[in-house]
Structures are given as C-alpha cells and as structure tokens.
Design goal:
Layout: E1 2-16, E2 19-28, E3 35-40, E4 46-51, H1 54-62, E5 68-76, E6 79-87, H2 93-102, E7 107-111, H3 117-125, E8 132-140, E9 155-166, E10 175-182, E11 196-203, E12 208-212, E13 221-223, H4 227-241, E14 245-248, H5 251-265, E15 280-284, E16 287-291, E17 296-299, H6 300-307, H7 315-323, H8 335-341, H9 343-378, H10 382-385, H11 390-404, H12 415-422, H13 450-460
Parallel strand pairs: 3-9, 10-14, 12-13, 14-17
Antiparallel strand pairs: 1-2, 1-8, 2-3, 4-6, 4-7, 5-6, 8-9, 10-11, 11-12, 15-16
Length: about 450
C-alpha cells in the first residue's frame, strides 16, 4: 500500500454500476508535482429521521430499499435525543425515498436530507479544499476506470486505507488566465456567426501568449491557420501547462460560453479537465458557471463585485483601484477596426489582448488569497465558495461545526416560516461596552468585513 500527499483542489462523484465513487482532484506533493485523482468507493449517503416511535420507525424504514437503519444518540439544539440514521446505497436514492420515509406514520420529520453528497464527504472526513491531505492506497490504470477518458494523462489513485487532513501552509498554485477577442463588425458579438480572432493566455509560471490567425513580429504572438486551430491550440496549452486555477474576467458569462459555442460549431472537443472531460456549465443561483473538472475555474468579475465598492466593474476600473495605474483600453465596438486595418493597429490589438490576460493574472494573485483562505475556513470547494453569498458561507461553516459537535442540522425554513421570519425584526448582536486600558489576546472575525481588514493588514505589512 502506498501513501501520498496532495493539495486538495476539488471534489465530485461519479457512478459506476449502482455505486457512487468520490473523486478527489489534487496536486501531488512530490518532485514531479503531478495532477492526481483519488477515487474512494467506500462512502455512502445518509439522512437522520426524527421518530415518533423508535421501534416502529425502524421497522417501517427497514421495509424500504435502504442499506442500513440504526438508532443513534445526537444533539438537537444542544439537547441529546435519539434519531434513526438511514444509510443509502447511492446519493440518488435520497430524493427517491425521502418522501416515502417522511410520509411514514412513525416519522415526525427528516433531517440533513439536502446536503449534497460531495459536501457530506468533506464534512464527515474533516477535509478542507486548498489544504493538504494524506491518502493510503494504490495507483490504478486509467483504462480500468470507465469514468476517466482514455487519453487522460492524470495519475489515478484508489483509496484503500485512511484519508487524513494535514496541517499545511498556504499552497503554491499554478494560475492560468485567459481572454478572448472576437470579430464583431455589427455590434454585440454573436457566437453563431462572429469568429474568435485571438485567445490570450498568461500564467504565474511565466507564460504570455496570444494565439491568432494574423501574423505579427511580436514574439508573444503564435500564428495558426484558422479559428479551429486557435481553439485546438488553446486546449493543448491548458493540457500542457496543467494549471490548478483557470481564471478570467466575466468568463462565466462571456469567454467560456463563447469558446464552447464556437467549438461546437467547428466540431472541436474541449477536453480541458484533468480527467479528460470537456468544459461543462452548471447552474449557480441565477447564473451559469463554467466547470472544468480538476481545474478550479474562477470568474474574477464575481470576486470583485463581492469585495470592492466601485461605480463600475470594468477590468480597467478594477485595475486602477487595486494598482493605481491606468490600463490600456480598446472599446469593444472598435476591435474589428484594429483587426481589419492591420499594421500598427493590429499590433496594438495584440498588446491590448495580452495585457487583458496579464492584468487578470495580477488581479488574481492579489485578490484570490482571500477567497482561498475562506475556502480553508468554510471547508467547501473553492469553485463553490467563489460563487457563494455571505449567508451561504456562514451556513456551510456552521453545518461543519455542527457535525464536529454532534449536532443535527435544523431543516431550512418552509416558505411560510420564511415569510413569517421576514416580518420580524432581529434584536441584533450583543455589544459589550469597552473597558478602558490596554488589552491582550484580542480576536476579531467578520465574514462580511474580512476583505476590508485583509487590505488594511496588507497595507501595514
């Protein structure tokens, strides 16, 4: 049996047969510093049931298609009570059976039925994304794993022993930024007809490149034959650079959706994930988020809206606020003119496009440590934390703390309860009158005010 250490970057699960397999995406802590995926097939979903009658409740639930039914003593708002813990074979069994369980005559209510499987795993195992973990098991062949692409070059490791969180310093992460330019002579670009004319890339490892079909004497410009080769080269570079973080500015709403649309029109696979999977989109609140398996995609536009109070949130305005420097700008409706004119105008467009990617890298290096640290506090994936509201961050932090103290999490309020609560005023927090004098061991923490205090601390150092 081997033991490996890695930085935990992301997590999900896949289904093999009727079994759910947890996948932990990370960066192995060794000389090669390779991407790694750890597979764990030994974890099962569960919920808690508040019984009216324990014996009758156990008997009724055992008649359903569940793996295990057991009586457990837990806390409910600090009071110890007996609950029925119901374990299922697969996460999809929870929504299938919870209504049947809730409707049983011996059941008063059910708890913790809406905690996603991968989040349940992180909480129960005490794991924190963006921190190190140690795993015991063996390296496995990608060809033996149906859920991994055959062309996947990432190391696969099957968990057979323990998985343990490791106290570690802040990880050094490979960051790759992207930005695209589109030929749009008739106003707002439309992906069904307006081609991508360049993709710019910048990394904290020294890469600075613009891929385009136009020629230039600028050394950072790589010329290819057509738009298809722009996108194909973009995929190749991501696979070669193997970044931990993919960052953009408004990339959830523009860059990645546009690249995906153009790639589909040109029949080009976007195999960007460390497992060989393609670019996907998932619903986050009222918006779609671009998801790359094993590489955490972060849209800095969302981060800036959370942490900065500005009159507008253009890349130029944010850069000025953070670095007190003017950034070159070309209005979107003039890009096609610079492209068509060629010569110095085209070189100016190349420089502007690369500057956008470099600027995103600089902003990311300055602002992402705060969200990364929040990830290590809240204990949920960086991809999710970067898109959570403050209330959600607090909620998941409390859910983890509840588990650590043996507390069953209360259910979310119903719509009627929610409306009733909104009509009531909160009494507010306790404020202690200050005592004059010098004090030691002062601790202050506030989720919402954390950005301001972080910047203040940075200024002091």
């Amino acid at each position: 049996m081997e033991t490996k250490r890695m930085v935990l970057l992301d997590i999900d699960y896949v289904t093999r047969g009727e079994k759910a397999i947890i996948r932990l995406f990370g960066r192995e802590k060794n000389d090669a510093n390779e991407s790694i995926i750890v597979l764990d097939d030994g974890f099962q979903p569960y919920i808690y049931v508040v019984p009216r009658d324990i014996e009758e409740c156990q008997e009724q639930i055992e008649e359903l298609n569940v793996v295990k039914v057991e009586k457990v003593k837990m806390k409910d708002l600090a009071k110890e009570k007996y609950f029925i813990k119901v374990t299922f074979n697969h996460p999809q069994d929870v929504p299938k059976l919870r209504d049947k369980i809730r409707d049983l005559s011996s059941v008063k209510e059910i708890r913790e039925h809406d905690i996603p499987f991968y989040r349940r795993y992180l909480i129960d195992k005490g794991l924190f994304p963006m921190a190190e973990v140690e795993v015991e098991g063996k390296t496995t062949n990608p060809l033996d794993i149906n859920e991994i692409s055959n062309n996947c070059q990432t190391k696969l490791f099957k968990l057979q022993g323990e998985i343990r969180p490791i106290s570690s310093d802040f990880p050094n992460l490979n960051i790759l930024s992207l930005d695209i330019e589109v030929y749009n002579p008739k106003g707002m670009p439309k992906s069904e007809k307006d081609p991508i004319i360049m993709i710019s890339l910048s990394s904290n490892q020294g890469l600075q490149k613009v891929i385009s079909t136009a020629r230039s004497s600028l050394d950072f410009v790589e010329t290819v034959k057509n738009e298809s080769e722009i996108i194909e080269r973009f995929v190749e570079i991501i696979q070669k650079e193997d970044p931990d973080l993919l960052i953009g500015y408004n990339s959830d709403n523009f860059d990645f959706p546009y690249i995906k649309d153009r790639a589909e029109l040109l029949n080009i696979p976007l195999n960007l994930g460390t497992d060989g999977s393609q670019l996907k989109f998932m619903k986050k609140g009222f918006a779609n988020a671009a998801l790359v398996k094993g590489r955490v995609h972060v849209d800095l536009y969302l981060i800036m809206r959370r942490y900065l109070q500005l009159d507008r949130y253009t890349l130029e305005r944010v850069y000025l606020e953070l670095f007190d420097q003017e950034k070159q700008d070309i209005p979107g409706d003039e890009i096609h003119c610079y492209w068509s004119e060629g010569g110095e105008k085209l070189d100016t467009l190349f420089k502007y496009s690369l500057d956008d990617a470099v600027t995103v890298t600089e902003i990311g290096e300055k602002m992402l440590p705060l969200t990364l640290e929040l990830t290590r506090i809240v204990g949920q994936p960086f991809f999710d934390v970067a898109r959570m509201a403050t209330g959600q961050l607090v909620e998941w932090y409390l859910i983890r703390k509840a588990y650590e103290q043996g507390e069953i999490v209360p259910n979310k309020p119903s719509s009627s309860q929610y409306s009733n609560r909104r009509g009531k005023r909160a009494s507010g927090g306790y404020v202690k009158d200050p005592v004059k004098g010098l004090h030691e061991n002062i601790v202050y923490f506030d989720f919402r005010s954390l950005p301001e205090h972080y910047h203040f601390k940075k200024c002091l150092t």
